[in-house]
Automatic annotation (TrEMBL):
Stored InterPro entries: LRR_dom_sf
Biological source species: Linnemannia gamsii
Record protein name field: Uncharacterized protein
Length: 594
């Protein structure tokens, strides 16, 4: 024991976190939890914990170590903080379960300490047993922030105990709970937990995961909960009255592949009038559009202070009318962030709602949208004056921004954009067209353009000028809607012949006056803050392998001094790097080329 404690003291004095954690495993296997805690507390408090300066989390976590009595708690908490970074040198022969699992054999006695924040995550989705978590929470009545990820509830008694301990945390401000999907439908867990929260709660996230589905039968849980409430003192009833959570500002209800009963969701939303942020998953099936609009109107009326909407259904069913109904009822120009997944804009309903909040929207994220109308894109680009982040990610081959009618017509109002991520079509493929990019490289030089070709190239130039005025841009990703990396890597010759006209960004090069080739790289020279350039552009594709030269590398290095990541190397990893990529590396050794 003296040798081990001396070794621990050395590691603490040298601030060697990796070795300290490895040693702590051996120590915890030898000593009882109480002796281990006392020994670590005695030595760690002799040193300035601020020296352990990694994202400010080490000093906080060491404070946790000093107060916890179960060695497994220390190991798990410490491992969770540094997973994937400073723990890379841990012995491979040591079982990970020793560090990331609470086991039923460990029975920490109730204790009282001064923890205010408790995060119980897991590595690789492993499930955590409930009992040690419950013991830690129960012993720390001053907790203000609790994050429980992948905690398995085995019995109804476990669940009731969790509700009781949450009710007793009078200072609780933030609660994140992830549990089995079956609890969402069968026992109304979300509603029960919501009304068990103390009035001090400001953030609540309830997420249900498939891998946490419990084996117990919870079908009669609500009756069990009712019986419990009827047979205990009124003071200890879990939620005898449904008082408003007036301080609640953020509520997320994420149900995975199943659907939340709408009556339980609405009963919660009736009691949080000060809500600022709302995240919803799918609600019940077979609801008409009228019903969904009414639900949206109800939510907008009950939660008039909403500023952030997040809708992430697991299915492709169009639940969009709920969000549209909320946006319609909320006060005009009040919504700040809009995050939608799998949205179907087939009937062009989103554009007027965007216009209704165009002076307040700062972030728009349409992730895996099924369809998006041209009017919607134009309402965003030409109407949202304070927009800072725009991300459009299509679900399938649905068109994105058409250069002809969306990108070049009308002046963009979103001049404060820092993040722009959207699919781009050079032409409207529903009509007869001549491609605007790539094809001209095989024509005789000097290039002679027809009138319609000149018109097309003029619009492409205007599109780049629009982007060039976004002087605050830090992240730019433009991708052809026909771009498919799997097709390209699996059959490169086919992709080269069939898709050679669909690359974007097009003409991201300097003009060649001798050949009359257009080039619009200089239009982006004002993006001095640009850090990432991504998309379907590649230094080895049909177009850019012949247009990106040393001059382009020099201009990019000078105009984009902060560039850290560039997607200039599309194709198979074993292909030889192009001369252009080598030139870019020479000018910026820290540049990451992907």
């Amino acid at each position: 024991m003296p040798e081990l404690t001396a070794q621990l003291e050395v590691y603490l004095s040298k601030h060697d976190i990796t070795i300290l954690i490895r040693t702590s495993r051996h120590l915890s296997a030898i000593f009882t939890p109480l002796l281990y805690r006392d020994m670590l507390f005695f030595h760690s408090k002799r040193y300035d914990l601020a020296h352990f300066d990694i994202k400010d989390s080490i000093s906080r976590n060491l404070h946790h170590i000093q107060t916890l009595s179960a060695s497994a708690t220390f190991i798990y908490q410490f491992y969770d903080i540094f997973a994937g970074s400073s723990l890379s040198s841990l012995d491979e022969d040591e079982p990970k379960s020793a560090a990331i699992f609470f086991t039923e054999d460990i029975q920490p006695a109730p204790f009282t300490s001064s923890l205010t924040r408790f995060k119980c995550g897991s590595m690789d989705g492993d499930v955590i047993h409930f009992y040690p978590v419950f013991s830690i929470i129960r012993g720390n009545p001053g907790l203000t922030h609790i994050h429980l990820e992948n905690v398995r509830i085995h019995t109804k008694q476990d669940f009731v105990q969790l509700l009781r301990v949450v009710t007793a945390l009078t200072s609780l401000q933030s609660l994140v709970v992830c549990l089995g999907e079956n609890l969402a439908e069968l026992c109304g867990f979300g509603e029960a937990l919501f009304f068990s929260c103390p009035p001090s709660v400001k953030q609540l996230k309830i997420e249900f995961k498939q891998q946490l589905v419990c084996g117990s039968d919870y079908s009669d849980f609500e009756e069990t909960l009712k019986d419990i409430n009827e047979n205990i003192d009124e003071e200890t009833t879990l939620f005898p009255t449904r008082n408003p959570l007036s301080k609640l500002r953020s509520l997320f209800l994420c149900s995975g592949d199943i659907r939340f009963p709408k009556d339980k969701v609405l009963s919660m939303l009736m009691h949080c009038p000060g809500l600022r942020e709302l995240g919803l998953s799918s609600l019940e099936e077979r609801m008409s559009e009228t019903t969904m609009l009414e639900i949206g109107h109800f939510i907008g009326t009950r939660c008039p202070k909403l500023q952030i909407l997040n809708h992430s259904p697991a299915h492709l069913d169009n639940d969009g009318p709920i969000i549209l109904g909320i946006m319609e009822i909320l006060p005009s120009q009040s919504l700040r962030e809009l995050h939608l997944q799998k949205f179907n804009d087939a009937v062009d309903q989103l554009a007027p709602m965007i216009a209704r909040h165009s002076k307040s929207l700062c972030k728009i994220n349409l992730h895996h949208y099924v369809s998006l109308e041209s009017k919607t894109i134009q309402s965003i680009l030409c109407g949202c004056e304070v927009l800072e982040e725009l991300r459009l990610l299509r679900y399938n081959a649905a068109a994105g921004c058409f250069v002809d009618k969306d990108g070049a017509e009308g002046e963009w109002a979103c001049v404060n954009l820092r993040v722009l991520d959207m699919p781009v079509e050079i032409n409207d493929y529903s009509k007869d067209f001549q491609p605007m990019s790539g094809y001209h490289l095989d024509r005789p030089t000097p290039l002679v353009l027809k009138s319609d070709e000149k018109r097309h190239f003029k619009k492409l130039e205007k599109f780049y000028q629009q982007i060039g005025r976004l002087v605050n841009l830090e992240y730019l990703r433009l991708e052809s809607a026909h771009w498919n990396r799997s097709d390209y890597t699996s059959n490169a010759s086919y992709f080269r012949s069939e898709y050679k006209n669909y690359w974007f960004p097009a003409m991201l090069s300097l003009p060649r006056p001798d050949k009359k080739w257009p080039g619009y790289l200089c239009e982006l020279s004002g993006l001095k803050k640009l850090r990432e350039l991504r998309g379907s552009v590649g230094a080895m594709n049909f177009e850019t392998e012949r247009t990106l030269m040393s001059e382009e590398a020099e201009v990019m290095s000078q105009c984009w001094p902060l560039l850290e990541v560039a997607e200039f190397r599309c194709g198979k990893p074993e292909w030889q790097e192009s001369d252009f990529c080598a030139l870019m590396r020479l000018r910026n050794p820290k540049l990451i080329l992907i």
